[in-house]
Amino acid sequence: MDQAAAENEMVVKQDLKVVAEVRRFVRLVTGQWGMDDFVPCLVASELVTNALQHAASASDDDVILRLSRTEDDALWMEVQDAACDLPHMLAADTSSETGRGLFIVDQYARCWGIRALAGNAGKIVFAIIDPPVR
User: Fold this and answer.
1) Which string of DSSP letters, residue by residue, matches 47-107?
2) Model confidence at 59: pLDDT above 90
3) Which of 32, 79, 93, 94 qualifies as a FRET site for 103, CA 20 to 30 Å off?
């Protein structure tokens, strides 16, 4: 792995309190790239929270957040965890306090998806976020 990739990676410990640290990390990286951080922070918070709540609880493995740029300067974000269960969008009602994470990701990302890791080692959930129009 090259130096730049390692610098834009964060190992997230299994504690929901670290989501604030995730947002600080995303602000730092997107700031270096001259990008607005609101949508990237929102999407990262949702993806990491999902991984911590659903995937990490089933194992002792950490969650890994990676950020990079696409050829057209969009933000590529991926969250890796060790669980093989695939996330899915829930139909949350207006009074629900949970269940909106992937709906939010779906609304703000250009696209998102899931990639299984070889050997049942887990999965990566990714999202591509367009830079704001200037």
Assistant:
1) HHHHIIIIIGGGSSPPEEEEEEE-TTSPEEEEEEES--PPP------TT-SSS-HHHHHHH
2) no
3) 32
CATH label, 3-129, candidates 1.10.10.10, 3.80.10.10, 3.30.565.10, 1.20.1560.10: 3.30.565.10
Band (pLDDT 50/70/90 cuts) for residue 125 is very high
Instruction: State yes or no: pLDDT of 96 exceeds 70.
Output: no
Rounded to two decimals, what is the model's pTM? 0.84
Single out the residue of 53, 113, 114, 117 nearest to residue 82, CA to CA: 117
Return d(Cα 32, Cα 38) in angstroms, integer: 14
